[in-house]
Amino acid sequence: MRERIPVVVQGRRTRRSRAARALWTAAELAVTLGAVLLLLVVHQLWWTNRQAQHAARDQVGRLERQWDARPPAPGPAPVPGDDGPGARTAPGAAPSGPPAHRTGNRTTAPPEDLAYAVLRIPRIGLTAPVAQGVAKAAVLNRGYVGHYPHSAQPGRAGNAALAGHRNTHGEPFRRLDRLRPGDTVLIDTAEARYTYAVRRTLPRTTPGDGTVLAAVPYSSVHPAYHFTAPGAYLTLTTCTPEYTSTYRLVVWAVLRSTQSR
After folding, report:
1. In the chain, which end has fewer C-beta atoms inside a 10 angstrom radius, N or C?
2. What is the rounded distance in angstroms from the CA atom of residue 210 to the CA atom of residue 221?
3. Could you read off the pLDDT of 233-257 as tens digits, one per residue?
4. Is 165 noted as a catalytic residue in this protein?
5. Is the whole model's pTM more than 0.85, yes or no?
């Protein structure tokens, strides 16, 4: 009898092994990609907040130490013949209170990106430095609140407009939507403390609704939200809904009192 040589068919097994290796490789890539994405999320949502909040607290402390170390500023010169707390200020005397830098009798805006004030909102437990400008890298991503350069300075007539992150990078305006009419907003500077009272909140408007920053603020998108008389306003803006930048949340406040340091 002739001995038969067995025939081994390997094609199907080879295809299966290749498919298994491809699936394994794809699974490894998916796990690696997932780990990288998870690290990015942790960095963005936790680490940037930790860094920015620490830096912001440190900046607030430095500002307060600088202010405490300053000698008291001389008061305005009284007009001859006037006595007591009701005395009038002499013509040409420097007014008190603007959180801007002074050069002689000329008031200038604070240098770009410089922290020069502290914003406090008791309702939401916020204490954050205020810097000139709203650039992300130089101001907002550091956990600071940014002052719109072309708006009024805090305590001045007009509209002092501020912006801050709602999520990541310190997220100072995370709970801005919790403010209610009558809530107190404080801005401390080297010269004075300005106390504002929240007047109204615009829950959602478009990023292009720039009239909310006008000297007498109003919404061109939502006309029912408006002010009609000149005053000393404060506007707080941030992104909404959370974790997006689709719309803007706006809170308006009005100046209630000024206390010199």
Report:
1. N
2. 10
3. 999 999 999 999 999 999 999 999 9
4. yes
5. no
